[in-house]
Write a structure and sequence with these properties.
Blueprint lengths: L1 H81 L9
Length: about 90
């Protein structure tokens, strides 16, 4: 009877350990997946931040160009006015 109980206990322990190892493997797999996702999210965040910075620089450049063009137009109009030319709207 003792032999039977020892065998049963050994079988139960082996089965419990096998289940425990299977659960640990599943948890390890999930952790690896989460780590890979975290790494990818970091890459995506960097890409988004870089794109946003480039867009901001482009907008600032465009605004500067538009302001510069407006200043040049005003200067030309002022010079024409000083020279006695008619404003273009009157022509």
């Amino acid at each position: 009877m003792k032999r039977f109980l020892r065998r049963a206990q050994s079988w139960i322990e082996r089965r419990a350990l096998a289940q425990l190892h299977a659960r640990i493997d599943a948890i390890d797999h999930r952790l690896e997946s989460m780590t890979a996702l975290e790494r990818r999210l970091g890459e995506v965040q960097t890409t988004v931040e870089t794109t946003a910075a480039r867009a901001a620089a482009s907008i600032e450049y465009s605004q500067g160009a538009a302001e510069s063009e407006a200043r040049v137009t005003r200067r030309i109009e002022a010079i024409e006015q000083m020279l006695g030319a008619k404003p273009q709207g009157d022509a």
